Amino acid sequence: MVSVSTWERIERQKLRQRELRTRRNRPGDRPDPARPAGTDLLPQIKHVVVLMMENHSFDNYLGTLGRGEGLPLGADGRPTAENPDSAGTMIRSHHAGSTGQDQGVPSQSWSASHAQWAAGKMNGFVTSAEQATPDGDKAAAMAYWTDQDLPFYHGLARTFPLADRWFSSCLGPTFPNRRFLLAGTANGLMDDLPPNLLDRPPAGTIMDVLTRHGISWVNYRPAASDQTEFQRFIQYRRRRIMHHLASITRSLRDPGYVFNRDLQFTAALYPLGMASYMAHVRSIDQLFADADSGELPAFCIVDPDFRTFSEENPQDIRKGESFAAEVIRRVMHGPGWADTLLIWTYDEHGGYYDHVPPPEAVPPDDVRGRSVVAHPSPVRGVLKALFPSYVRHAEQLVEGPNTYDTYGFRVPAVIVSPYARPDCVLSEVFDHTSVLKLLEEKWNLPALTRRDAAATSPLGALDLTAPPAFLEPPRLPAPALAWGTW
Asked: Of 134, 193, 257, 265, which is the most exposed, with the fewest CB atoms less than 10 Å away?
């Protein structure tokens, strides 16, 4: 018979475990409460670089890698995954016939992502493509590329630690997912519409926290090299305003017009004033110069040109690979490589199939999804009277649940560092707030939301107790297209 004191000890232990779980999910907590915020707890790593490309799932890019959990294979060695179309015909996973992509298909909108997920059944990819673009290629969602198409990416993922459970942060498009990278929350954002980008989360962004503690950060993005930073700021503000005005006025003239989002750089997804822009937004040319001279900041986000080589459809994916390869090459061969950690990943899946159902996620806060255009608001009332087709399109984009309690689909993710563990595959659950967790663990920073408080950082990819295995940068395959040749 178990004594009362034994049960009491078990009860106390369970209470302590429950308390630890609660504390782990509490915003404002620091990794080491005994030391002040801003304390460097990982001095071996001086530079954290996040290279986030666009719109591809793990299976779509790395499903045939042969490392980590890729596409299920049949006896013939070919992927067996399939999804039904609207007539019930099964469409099988297949090697894409081209590195170019179809315009507008597949779709990664909030409503399309939830339809693809289908409450975990993962069988709505083809039908959502049919709905998004009735005249498009419904089979595009089931396509994948191989090492013949993306030799650099496959070589990178075979060499450095691969995270085969890195999920996007929500079942939605680019803007909400990149907001999670900045602040641990989308703060209610469900779409890529500019009218919904005027808010700020209560705890601010990771950039705010870094600035408060004197930790350097930069958002590098493609920009004209013959302009001053002030001219670039004016161009950024003008382009943002004109894009929004043009989109809604065109909706009035053309009821069939589909809104095209315009993202210039990630940090702009929460309001960014002139002082922050001038202090922290730099060109890709400056990234290369900083990498070559060993002057990278403590933290940086590297953005591609979202119109040309981000890998979103209808772009040729080889162009994005060549850009990413050049960024990684410059970082690896720069004088700062010895104390750098670079994460290559994707904001979301782009509508492409993945076979692993996203697990439940800790909601970041109590803010539910909302849209000032699609949901009841004074703004919506005015826009509906003036631009009804614009409002109808906005409503279609955000159909479905308005909560953030499920991760988005898996995306490619590789951790690149001289301290990386060879032959390493990480299968813990990560999402974009794992980057925030990494920064918090390095500089003893407070968690911004419940999501990043509960996140796991990718530090398991590193061995900081042994001589770095990749101090001499490894040889990687060349990209399919060389940078600067297209």
From this structure: 134
